[in-house]
Amino acid sequence: MSVREWTYAIVVVSFALYIGIAIWAKAKTTKDFYVAGGDVSPLANGMATAADWMSAASFLGMAGIIAFAGYDGSVYLMGWTGGYVLLALLLAPYLRKFGKFTVPDFIGDRYYSQSARIVAVFCAIFVSFTYVAGQMRGVGIVFSRFLEVPVTTGVLIGMAIVFFYAVLGGMKGITYTQVAQYCVLIFAYLVPAIFISLMVTGNPIPQLGFGGQDLASGEWLLDKLDGLHQQLGFAAYTEGSKGMLDMFCITAALMVGTAGLPHVIIRFYTVPKVRDARISVGWALLFISILYTTAPAVAVFARTNLIQEVEGRAYAEDVDAAETVPAWFKTWEGTDLIAWRDKNNDGRVQYRAGAPFLGKPAFVEGTGDNGERLVANEKTDNANELYVDRDIMVLANPEIAKLPAWVIGLVAAGALAAALSTAAGLLLVVSSAISHDLLKRALRPNITEKGELLAARVSAAVAVGIAGVLGIYPPDYVAAVVAFAFGLAASSFFPAIIMGIFSRRMNKQGAVTGMVCGIVFTASYIIYFKFIDSGPGSQDRWWWGISPEGIGAVGMLLNFAVALTISKLTPPPPQHVQDMVDSIRIPAASRKEG
What we know:
The chain is mainly α. The chain has helices at 3-24, 30-35, 42-53, 56-69, 74-98, 103-110, 114-146, 151-201, 206-209, 221-231, 244-258, 262-265, 274-310, 327-333, 393-400, 405-443, 449-472, 478-502, 508-532, 551-569, 575-585, 588-593, and strands spanning 338-340, 363-367, 373-375, 386-388. It contains 22 helices and four strands.
């Protein structure tokens, strides 16, 4: 069977499984739709949380960014895993003890204000749509390459699948679907990693293999990659180029952003007891660590193989086969995610440091002298001729390593599972924010449960449509888009939730002002430096050298500072709210003794 046939077979079987689970777990009540009835076991919830968490950014984007950024890419590993420690210690048990459906529920009740609830609804929707853009882009990339359809068509297929099991099953359907999706995605990630680790280093454990010796040369693999990098004009792979403050801010933004993401927080409400929420986080961290400790190995294998398989190879087919670029190179060209322009007209691919094109390649009609696709936005003052979209590295890795066709199809199915599982969780956040927090708790408090469930499904359907548009026109690479979402969550939700749990004095005026200031500042900075002043030299104008991916840490500090200042200048919360804070944080026995 060909790669395409294997991909079709594995994807169809996995999609049939997801749809079957959604039908079996159809939501019948609003509690089913929002929190899966509140009776999910900690093990299943941990697995579902891991799938919800390990999005296209984890499956595709993280290893891709590490493959290109080297040491600098470690911020994603540290930030995204460290955030779960914050969740386990600071948020999970307290939010579960509060016992409501959503984050805006907590914000609205804790800060005794409909204004606070509506601001939280806006933040949840804004963060979720920013995040979901990366997931839908990942879906489009997978379908574009392996089912040989345009990216737009791939996104539309993904929308149809998510629409079915998110709108029909709600959180109950999504939870049990995500258990299956975790199994698919982790198997799909580990199988090629183990294969390649054995082929390259002889070690079946990827986490150890990428720190071992290359069988072909006898060199330590990382030393070999450093050498290849330096020969081509790149910085050593194991050395970083980011400033210390920027590294710290990106890591901090990703960590606290993790603890503020609404689609992760809502998971704590799906288990029966407070103790189960803490156990769920432990299971989730274990399941997540399996993929996250494998990602650096995948990045190193992919980067090494890419350089060895492409650099200096001839593009034309009339050259000795051993000297030409492999077949997968031209296949990926058809997706517009790889581009080559023969600037020195020698017929060979020159991969050097620097950007070959002004931004992403803009293809035009016609071919060059050596058959390459023509690009309108060529950057002629650079020796680099090759553009590779970093989001394809995990998907292309099995082809680069010449693995069997069924492994390539399995990776495609795993990438789809990762993207669709997170997209479904995010869309449910949008749906519940509109139907429960905005409609039921603010605009139409007398709406029936049946009417609320219908509103939840309609808003989920609308959210799927908007998510599809964002997937077709994404603002950046998958991991970068997701990093922006984390920065927005860090600067808006995290301070309000933390102060809501641990500060009896924090009032509605401080919390609302802090959330608005934090998210407006962070969003403005990201929009300005990603879409307005994003040209050459823009990095020199970053404030304190902090990138848009890391500015959420500054937005978080601004939120804390504004909230604490305003709360000191305004009246304290009512006594019943202060008592509620004590009931959330302090065990009942301790309160009686006091």
